[in-house]
Amino acid sequence: ILMTEFFHSCTTNERKREIEELLNNFAQQTGAWRHCLFFLSNTRNEYVMMYSLTVFENLVNKMWIGVASQDKMEIRSCLPKLLLAQHKSVPYFIRNKLCKVIVDIGRQDWPMFYHDFFTNTLQLIQSPALASLGLVMLKTTSEELACPREDLCVARKEELRKLLMEQVPTVLGLLTGILETYWDKHSVIASTPPPSPTSGESLELLGSLFQGSQYSKLLCQPMAALDSESQQLCCLVLECLAHLFSWIPLSTSITPTLLASIFHFARFGCDLRTKPSEGSKVDRARLGVLAMTCVNELVSKNCVPIDFEEYLLRMFQQTFFLLQRLTRENNAHTVKNRLQELDESYLEKFTDFLRLFVSVHLRRIESSPQFPIVEFLALLFKYTFNQPTHEGYFACLDIWSIFLDFLTTKIKSRLADRESVLNRYKDALVLLLREVLNRIQFRYNQAQLEELDDETLDDDQQTEWQRYLRQSLEVVAKVMELLPSHAFSNLFPVLQDNLDVYMGLQQFIVTSGTTRRLNISAENDCRRLHCSLRDLSSLLQAVGRLAEHFIGEIFAARFSDALAVVERLVEVTCYGSQTTLYDLETAVPSVLKPDLIDVHAQALAALQAYSHWLAQFYSEVHSQNPSQFINLITSAIDASSPLITAKVPEKLLLSSCHLMVSITSTVRPVFLVTLPAVQNIYNLNTTESQTRRLPPEAHLLVCRALSNMLLLPWPNLPESEQQWQTRSSNHASLLAALTREYRTLRGTVNITPRQPNLDNTVIHQTLPVLRDIVDSISGESTKSRQICYQSLQESVQVSLSLFPVFIQQPDVTDEMLAFFLTLFQALRVQMGVAFTGQIIHTFLSMFTREQLAASILQEGSAGCRVVQKFLKILQVVVQEPGQAFKPFLPSILSLCMEQVYPVVAERSSPDVKAEMFELLYQILHQNWRYFFKTSVLTSVQRGAAEDTMENEAQFTAAMQAFGQSFLQPDIHIFKQNLSYLESLNSKHKLYHRKLFRTSMLLHFINVLLQVLLHKSHDLLQEEITVAIYNMASVDFDAFYSAFMPEFLNGCQGVDTSQRAVLARNFKLERDLPSFTQSVQRLVNDLRYYRLCNSSLPTGTIKL
Asked: Could you list the residue ranges that cross the membrane (predicted)?
């Protein structure tokens, strides 16, 4: 009654809690199992049965040690009888649960107290009426005993694995027998083949695989016609095999007969013809799916013993026979129709198989004379390009990518016979390239491409269409790397065709008054134009993606191809900008206008991709033919400069800005400054016109380009010809113009804080641009950085004087600190010690403890980001070599330990914490001698036995902060801090220092072992164990003789004899692998003992 009430929809949660408490109390009573046995024998209520079985499960898994041996015997004899009596009448989930409880008993007691546990299961499998029950028992045994959960001690886990391994040959033999029997029994009926065109199947394609082997005959047999009961049973056998294969190592127990049987059933996935008597199509497909699951379990194992290699070859032969069936064409079905009718999961499994074959085994098999790799690729090709779904096609493209990577690696390692290897595969690769290129073009594949979504972004911030294009282009690029000239000759003509259409649009432009329109209105023409423009856009992306294959060592060899591409791209971009196609009125504006904009933007982006090629052209060939280079660059600038105005669609505007940035930063032509178009952009950006202001991102890019042009050294020219003088004054006037409004703020602000209504927009507009300019020269020569700082100097001083005014406005402070952080990272040398000191001093005085606490407490807010950036600036300061900033160390340390740490210690505040600990680590690492004064001489004299400590209290506080962080749940901070300690040890021998060794080492080891015991940071098991090893190895003798006994004595929840076993099993090993094993064993067994002891009935006397 209680169970029914509990699950009734009207029962309130309050009442459910009461019932749950009642039931839990009942389960805890000694002898409750007897009542449950009675319920199980006499009730038909599923809830009651399930509850009773849960009581048994709890008893076996948690209290079995405390159950009297007489009771155990009774339970071991009653439950199997109950299973035999009721397995047909109870629902399957009750039957499975009962099987699991019996297997749980076996896990504890077999073979010592429950010697017939496994033989009973084998007998069930052998008796026809009970075979399915036996198989459920076998699968459960495999699941629960082969990879038991942690509630067993390690010794028992190892014993169970050994016992099961002994049974493997018998079990596999039995299962093979069942599969063979059912196949043969049902094949006899169908021994006369139906007169159909497919019965005399030709094996010409993979003929060389089989050469009259028994498989060719076997696999050509007609399919067995199984009734539904036989299908169910064979499904169970295959499920068992799949689980067994997940832990059995590859060995000869997996016989050829067994493999052949599995493959017979794998055929059920690819044979669609069914007779009414043969069970449903779904059941047949399920057999195929399960058989392929077994095959994939075997193929996924990388460790292949020598004597199994031949079996592997056979498996591949058999699977490719299936692949041939899947891709076979006959009059009734095209390959695509065939694949479409198949079960989706079967196809998935088959694709998984192909992926595993190519990624794990191809290197073994490829050179085998018995394996016709080229024919295999032909089948894979058919399989790939007839996939019924996009996901299936993506998965197959992945397989090709793995294959191409394999081929590239192989060729790099065998340069001598590079040509012969390539020739073997050339035809296949060219076919692949053509087909992948066709697949991204609307001209050949419109129906499928229109299904792709180009609106919603996935987790990688790309639409389905973009993902499709990107994955396809990756394959094209990989083929290009192997066969550059073939790839180019396939791609360039297709690009030319679509370009001709685009370039021909000019003749259809009609001007009336002020409007210009495209005079193409017939629906069919518009559709064709749309497709052509979409294809052009994709092909431009393809051409851009291939840019990297024209530079470096192959520059000269591929020069004429690349030149043809770049000239064409320059021509297209100029044409687009001159005819301003993006401005036309069209018949279908919602479709054609975005198309025209996109083509123009992609052409600019493709040209930008060739900027490294242009740079190489500039340095290597320019001197021979300067006019050619100058024309290319001038035209590229002429194409992009008219688009740099707020009136142009943003997509186009940004593409042209990015092109400008690449030309100024990568190519760096000396004559750029003299081009009228560039001077025009310079003037536009330095005059005080707010009306024509560009959107923020474009403005930022243009300023970066102009600054780069003036700051970056010109290639191929000596220092004396760099014209730094002129460039420096031009840069100063550029920045003066950009910061004009910003610098006036200093005069207009009363230096009294808390004026929240000040005009922040100027700050938000100016500082990101300045930050970006500094950032883009951070890796450049001293001269560039010097000029940059000279131009910025006044703005930096303005920022420092404004800082106190805006301290209460976190969004403004955030912007300012971001600027200062970039300055510190890139220009600290140029700023000089005195001024840097002034900045740090200002910051340290502004960030009071209250200010910090208030900011940190608003997690994720601008205030929080301000504190993070401030800590980042201090990280840069403490990493500076030399003595200049050493005077700040005490105040930085005290800010860290006395102001920030107390606020974050007890809170999660992950972002601030991460930065604070990094600062602490950098202080220790870069300023080790602030704490340990050991000179080289003293360490030699004293044998490094003693350390001279200074600032001991601060060092100890820092170490305590690290230790404290290991007691908190945040796994990222834990990982970061553990790696910091390990790094300090490898660089400065932290664990060997006297102070650490005598007063901290054992505490750290203890904390880390406790973390392993609590399983709170399981993902970091390996890192934690290595750290424990490194700490213990400072003095293994002390670790084994003093720490371990003390640690075990302090362990709660285990008795003396269990402690002795734990100590005995922790071997006195000094190498990392053995030590790791000992730690894992200790943690597992200690948890197991605690579990057992906690569930013993009260008053139990432990022996």
From this structure: none
Cβ-based neighbours of 857, under 8 Å, separated by 6 or more: 903, 907
Cα 404 from chain centroid? 21
Of the pLDDT bands very low, low, confident and very high (cuts 50, 70, 90), residue 211 is very low
Whether 596 and 581 have beta carbons less than 8 Å apart is answered as yes
**Burial of 814: CB neighbours in 10 Å, binned 0-12, 13-18, 19+:** buried
d(CA 31, CA 493): 85
Q: From 795, 880, 866, select the one nearest 837 (Cα to Cα).
A: 880
pLDDT in tens, 542-565: 999 999 999 988 899 999 999 999
Cβ atoms of 1049 and 1089 within 8 Å: the answer is no
Q: β-pairing, 509-512 with 515-518?
A: antiparallel
509: which strand partners? 518
Beta bridge partners of 511: 516
**HEC string for 29-69:** CCCHHHHHHHHHHHCCCHHHHHHHHHHHHHHHHHCHHHCCH
734-744: burial string, b at 16+ Cβ within 10 Å, e else: bbeebbeebbe
Minimal CA–CA distance to 231: which of 193, 265, 261?
265
Q: What is the DSSP string of 628-662?
A: HHHHHHHHHHHHHGGG-STTS-HHHHHHHHHHHHH
Alpha helices by DSSP H, 777-861: 782-802, 810-831, 833-846, 849-857
* Cis omega (within 30 of 0) for bond into 111: yes
Torsion sign, CA atoms 559, 562, 564, 566: negative
Among 640, 750, 619, residue whose Cα is nearest residue 698: 640
**Interatomic CA distance for residues 527 and 523, integer angstroms:** 6
Q: How high does pLDDT run on average in the chain? A: 85
802 is written with which tokens? 């404004």
| Tens digits of residue pLDDT in 618-632 | 988 767 778 889 999
Other CB atoms within 10 Å distance of the CB of residue 330: 11
pLDDT at 935: 54
Minimal CA–CA distance to 745: which of 729, 732, 761?
Answer: 761
Query: Phi/psi of residue 809, each to 5°?
Result: -115, 95
The structure tokens listed for 398 are 């992945």
Predicted pLDDT of residue 744: 87
DSSP 858: S
Predicted confidence at residue 199, as pLDDT, reads 34
Distance separating alpha carbons of residues 347 and 354, to the nearest angstrom: 11
Three-state secondary-structure class, residue 816:
helix
What is the band of 274 on the pLDDT scale with cuts at 50, 70, 90? low
Judged by DSSP in three states, 95 sits in helix
Place of tokens 């990518």: 401
**Residue of 226, 120, 143 whose CA lies nearest to 181:** 226
* Ramachandran category for residue 461: left, alpha or beta (phi over 0 → left; psi -120 to 50 → alpha): left
Rounded CA gap, 159 and 110, in Å? Answer: 10
H-helix or E-strand containing 171?
Answer: helix 154-189
Pure H helices in 300-343: 309-326, 335-341
429 CB-near residues (< 8 Å, 6+ apart): 404, 479, 482, 483, 486
Q: Distance between CA atoms of 333 and 1074, rounded to whole angstroms? A: 60
CA dihedral 715, 719, 720, 723 (to 10 degrees): 60
- Would you list the DSSP string of 992-1028? GSHHHHHHTHHHHHHHHHHHHHHTTTGGGHHHHHHHH
pLDDT at position 832 is: 86
Chain segment 408-464, per-residue pLDDT in tens: 998 888 777 888 888 889 999 999 999 999 999 999 988 888 888 888 888 888 999
**With b meaning 16 or more CB within 10 Å and e meaning fewer, what string describes 580-590?**
ebbebebbeee
Q: How far is CA 861 from CA 284, 816, 855, 866, in A?
A: 58, 16, 8, 9
